[in-house]
Amino acid sequence: MTHFDYLEQYLVTHITYSKQTIKGYRSDLRQMKKFFVEWSVKSLQAYFDQLIHQYKPATAMRRYHALMALGNELVRAKRIKVNPMKQVRPIVHQQIQQREHHPLEETIQTIRQISHPTYRLFFELISQTGLRFMETRLLSIEDIQFATLTLLVRHGKGRRLRTVPLGEGLVSKLRTFLEGRKTGLVFQSVRGKAINEQSARDALRKQSLATRGRSLHPHDLRVSFATYLYQTGNQKLLEIQRLLGHGSSRTTEGYILTEETKLQQIIDALSV
């Protein structure tokens, strides 16, 4: 079995990656295979040197991080001794963040208007803990520590475990929602399986469009949570990094948005 075949099988059976992530990673593998790229520093470096001249920075950066993760899996599976991606020059795109900001308080109010009780609490939990979509989808009742108002996250990226705090109001809602259940997934379908990924995303998107005229995605909730902690809660970047389960503070820095980016206004004034 080749490295490509192994990684294809690995992605198909991986439970913590979302369908979108798996689709993206498989596309990256196909592109790598198409250009006859080998898992060696020389081959990968030549590939990315070419990539940054042909694709948008966001595409090149995403592919870089995807192959870094897949290389780590090959090491974990003992198919290679060292991940060659760690010696490939990193791709850095220096730019001013001008993404749309979604104030956390407004976001939570929008979520609380979702009619479906499971999806409503599902996204309320994400917005108040910063959990990833798949981390929340695979959350077990046993991982909720009601006595200490904490939550153990077992399905984080990079096999990193972390404990996050829960608000008293959220804990109360979880108790009511579980109706005495002690085991199994917190958020499940009528058949006891994990909730449908696309249906959950659609519920958030439709409610946000109806309430605010703007589409919200699960990742926006993590960004809003991080921004709120940094701006309003005055939390240190390292603490936010740990809460979000990031392996690097650079990733966390990209989550911190300003409520209003004035750079464009300044530049426009110069060009009058």
Largest sheet: 3 strands, antiparallel
Name the overall outline: globular
* Rg calculated over all Cα atoms: 21 Å
Percent of sequence in beta strands: under 5%
**Top CATH class of the largest domain:** Mainly Alpha
List the domain count as a whole number: 2
Q: Report the mean per-residue pLDDT as an integer.
A: 90
CATH superfamily of the largest domain, please? Intergrase catalytic core
Describe the structure.
The protein has a 3-stranded antiparallel sheet, with no helix packed on it. With 272 residues, the chain is mainly α. It contains 13 helices and 3 strands, in the order αααααααβββαααααα. A hairpin with a 4-residue loop joins strand 1 (144-145) and strand 2. The model has no long low-confidence stretch (mean pLDDT 90). 55% of the residues lie in helices and 4% in strands. It has helices at 3-13, 19-34, 41-54, 57-76, 104-111, 117-129, 133-137, 168-178, 197-212, 218-231, 237-244, 249-253, 263-270; strands at residues 144-145, 150-153, 162-165. It folds into 2 domains: 3-87, DNA polymerase, domain 1 (Orthogonal Bundle); 105-215, hpI Integrase, Chain A (Orthogonal Bundle).
Strands, helices and their partners?
Elements: H1 3-13, H2 19-34, H3 41-54, H4 57-76, H5 104-111, H6 117-129, H7 133-137, E1 144-145, E2 150-153, E3 162-165, H8 168-178, H9 197-212, H10 218-231, H11 237-244, H12 249-253, H13 263-270
Antiparallel strand pairs: 1-2, 2-3
Helix pairs in contact: 1-2, 2-4, 5-6, 6-8, 6-10
